[in-house]
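FORM 12-B: Structure-to-Sequence Request
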């Protein structure tokens, strides 16, 4: 019995000590919490003081446009969904007009190509005609030389003949050949032949020779 009473008395004596320790521990924790609350409050007040200055600095800072921002703005301007009906209709008309201009440009290119090909063919034909003309001129020149040689031989033959015999032949010759030979013969010998020709043939030859002599004067 006495032993149980001692234990109870001992517990009663330890109780105030435990209560004191608990109070001290609670006070320490309460002080730490209070200090933490005070620190948070001071931080909030400091942030509020710095916030207006930061907002003002940001408001005064110039806005810099970057290439990405410009591209985004251009994309927004080109976005059909942001256009009204009139703008969309105008854009469609401009697109149709551009297609028409492209088609006309293609037609012009085709025409220019065709004209170029036609011009090239025309130049080739002109060059061919020039070659043919040159060939013809060369043939005529060669023929004229041959004809001149043939007439020169005839002149020699008729000049070596007696005037009466030559006159008999001259009465029957074609006027063109007669003129070609008569113009190249010696004047004295031609006069003798002319005197032996028939009056009609002599008259015709005389008139033709006189007309040919007047042609250069008439042309000038």
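FORM 12-B RESPONSE
SEQUENCE OUT:
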């Amino acid at each position: 019995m006495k032993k149980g009473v001692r234990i109870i008395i001992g517990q009663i004596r330890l109780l105030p000590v435990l209560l004191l320790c608990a109070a001290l521990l609670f006070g320490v924790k309460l002080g730490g919490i209070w200090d933490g609350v005070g620190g948070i409050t001071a931080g909030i007040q400091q942030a509020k003081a710095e916030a207006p200055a930061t907002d003002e600095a940001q408001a005064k800072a110039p806005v810099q446009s970057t290439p990405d921002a410009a591209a985004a703005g251009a994309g927004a301007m080109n976005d059909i969904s942001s256009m009204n009906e009139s703008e969309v209709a105008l854009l469609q008309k401009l697109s149709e007009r551009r297609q028409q201009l492209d088609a006309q440009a293609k037609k012009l290119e085709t025409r220019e190509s065709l004209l170029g090909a036609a011009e090239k063919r025309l130049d080739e034909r002109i060059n061919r005609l020039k070659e043919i003309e040159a060939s013809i001129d060369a043939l005529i020149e060669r023929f004229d030389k041959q004809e001149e040689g043939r007439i020169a031989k005839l002149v020699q033959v008729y000049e070596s003949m007696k005037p009466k015999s030559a006159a008999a032949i001259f009465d029957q010759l074609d006027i063109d050949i007669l003129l070609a030979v008569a113009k190249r013969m010696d004047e004295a010998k031609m006069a003798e032949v002319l005197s032996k020709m028939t009056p009609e043939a002599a008259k015709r030859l005389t008139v033709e020779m006189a007309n040919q002599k007047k042609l250069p004067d008439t042309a000038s």
